[in-house]
Amino acid sequence: MAKSTAKSPQKPAYRCAECGWTALKWVGRCTECQAWGTVTEIGAPKLGAVAAGPVSAPARPIAEVDVEAARAAPSGMEELDRVLGGGLVPGAVLLMAGEPGIGKSTLLLEVAALCGRDAPALYVTGEESAAQVRLRAERVGALAPRLYLAAETELSALLGHVDDVKPQLLVVDSVQTITTAEADGAAGGVTQVREVAGALIRLAKERGITVVLVGHVTKEGSIAGPRTLEHLVDVVLQFEGDRHSRLRMVRAVKNRYGPTDEIGCFDLSDTGIVGLPDPSGLFLTRREEPVPGTCVTVTLEGQRPLVAEVQALAAASNLGQPRRATSGLDSARAAMVIAVLERRGGLFLGKHDVFTATVGGVRLTEPSVDLALMAALISAYADRPVPVRMVACGEVGLAGEIRQVTGVQRRLAEAARLGFTDALVPKGLGRAVPGIRAVELDNVAELRSLLAPSGRDGGS
Asked: Gene3D superfamilies annotated for this entry (predicted)?
């Protein structure tokens, strides 16, 4: 009988420490996450070496599982609870990431203080001394009788504090500063972060403690550390904001207990951070008389409509290549709107410097902002202001058509609540919104005819 020459499939011998990708041969760069120097050798898996062992709890029919232990408890900050889907869940592990100095520590210190009024809460800092955190807590009014504070950088010491305090909420600021002797590498390294996070996740699940980990971000804006960290935790929160603005936003990138399309708005000042249930006023300029080059739009951040103002300025340029600058808007989308306005609307901006921006430091990337941006550009070029009580919502296509966007009724209802009376919208609005007179547009040419009738261009 002929001997079989079929070979058994080769087992992966190398694994990326960043994302877990495996390969048969070593490579310098992971083809999955594009990280350099993270592919290391792993031991050959031993099939059949694991035997059945004792279970932690017997399996039960799903209808008999008690759900009360997983009920979210309000944190005391309504804006944060909105993002989390109700509040803090016992046994959940949250990862909050954001740029340095954005206000992560201030927000979590106030959350811990609110929890510390009724139940034990432990705030562990690895970046500051206990006295520094105490001074900030006094400044923002975050002193609570059952809020405990510790400055530690060793995991074993942190676990010792947990045994002594027995908190319901544990805040670790930050996970990159905590080390353990059981893992190799320096603090903040891939191995250290993975081991520390794994130990804290086990602690949360075993004892029913809500754990909040503060995470650093890289210069690209992504969360520092191994990618598996984001997969292991239950909730990933992104803390955003402009350093030159008081507005701060928290959005859920991942949430096992609630929605991922909600945002929380906060006002950061010297006296602390407070929630903003109605932040639209921060994104508008208060003026009595209309000014050319401005238009108000209504954007949807998750399920929340936000009224914001878009500004544009077109000035004659002496440069061979006129400047194009944006602030708070997607530069690629702004360039597209300008190109469509020139080609389909007959507004020639090739010899003009064009500057576009938003008010209040808010960042608008939704396609529904296209119509407001185009209206602001036409207004700036023609030196004819858009009416003060008018908003614009719609997407602009490359063929010059104005397309429908989601949630138009909800957007216009928010505009009516704030006192706006007119709206520029795509055709096909359907049901009218009380208090709003809608002007339906089909293409860019109609928009220009409405805002800058022929022969009235101040910039031509």
From this structure: 3.30.230.10, P-loop containing nucleotide triphosphate hydrolases
